[in-house]
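TA notes. Do not distribute before section.
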Amino acid sequence: MTDLNNVPHIRVTPPGPESIRWHGRAEKHMKGYSSQVGLFPVVFEKGEGNVIIDVDGNTYIDFSSGIYCNSTGHCHPKVVEKIKEYAGKLLNCHDFTTPIKTMFLEKMASFLPGNLSGIQLYCGGSEAVEAALRTVRTVKGGKYEMFSFWGDWHGKTGASMSLSSLGGTVFGPRSAGCHLAPVPDCYRCPFKLSYPGCELTCADVLEGMIDNEGTGAQAAFIMEPVQGYSGAVVYRDEIFTRISEICSARDMLLVVDEVLTGMGRTGKMFCVEHYDLEPDVIVFGKGTAGGFPLSGIAVKEEYSQSLEKMSASTTYGGNPLACAAAYATLEVFEEENLLENVNRVGAYIMERLVKMKETHRIIGDVRGKGLLLAIDLVKDKNTREPFKEAGRMVYKKAFSKGVAWIPAENVLRLAPPLIMTEKLAEKALEIIDESIWEAEKHFSC
């Protein structure tokens, strides 16, 4: 067992010699690493709860959750036990029914909001989003026009990427019928207006865009209820009401991508529950199986037959081991009151972030819900110009001191496991605070 009183513990300045050796071997073959790895190519070997350890023996506080995946922490005993139980039974049988899949589906259905009851399982978020879009086209009789927001992240496959904002990398053209509307981000309003005087101009523009860019084949609006990749962008509650009204008036489906926000990350099992929003299709993934690859879609009961018509199954979706991990993860949610912990620790972290914002000149905004949080670094609090250089520096400095977390240029993302404690969170925040001071000194802020 890791001594949490001695966490974090940096034995060798990371990335240490063993990390450099292993990463050097891997990158001869592995290409296309994430920005996380590119900025700090440490090599991890094991994890336990809220702690992750590299090959040099350095111990870090995990503020990433394996990019939002390890909801129950690293190697939760109940999840590990269930995987071991099924590893010796059956590894794959395509999409045939297994007892553990049935048990997971029943338990998952009990967690889903509204009357979402038709489920299909996949491995990754992009795959599930693509399935959701196929579902829309099936339900809408071939209508194919989809709308989303600037800054949304729905995946890295054809249509999912076409409904995403993935920076300046050339990947076009977008798939036919995919449109992005200005995001209702009050901190960086695309229209340079202020709430509430803006009277939700962003929603009016979305409505006009759907009507004017659509060609009669408008099928659905797909959204992240809180933007993840763009840095925990939280919308005004009224936005969700307007979006629901816009979709209803045009007979469009509402697809909510909760790959990142779902499974307790924001303090509710699904983020839509904060807003009493009833999507027609919901996409889930990441934290569903405690770090094991599993994703899926759930559709309203009246649309369940569409899944029978669209060849919805996949080779690995509903894999017995994945279902075992997911079933155990849901049991942990029930038995350990994870949502209560998310709300308590999330409020504690946010209170600390607000105080940091007041004392640091380069923190322009702190935001989020539950344990989906972000720090937005700026060159000037009035202009709100993103401070990308500082973001990269703070990320690397904090990581070198023992906080494993997520960069997005000027936005630093905090996503600890849902079992995070206030004590460990405070240690991580002290390191982040110290790293921001060092960056401010370096840049003479």
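Switch to the second chain here.
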Amino acid sequence: MKNKILAVITAVLGLLAAIGPRTIFPVCSAAEMKMKCYYTANAEIAVGIIAALVGIAIILIDKNKVKLALSAVQAILGLVIILIPTAIIGVCGSPMMHCVSSTKPALIVIGALDIVISVILALLTLRDISVENKSR
């Protein structure tokens, strides 16, 4: 049961990463010129959707070894969520811009939570695997 709850949380975090930069903690307006944050938001949509789908897959799949692999993938996706606004693409250069003060910190928190929860999920799944092996 704990595993399913944690998987739901990772799916929700993926959705937040996907929709957040355009709605909840939006990047700068790209009316005239598309800045770095515009491309960061687009990349986060893709990564967030993948993270949400991996979270859903963890919920639906019963095989613990597959859950373990998906948990590792989810942790890597959490890292990518952090790296997109910080190292891969970035955000605007001015600290006064909304993407620097709102979007970037929110994505860092979402990615960090995704990593931590995915690692916990992997450890719980490893425990379940070892219990299965002992019972055989």
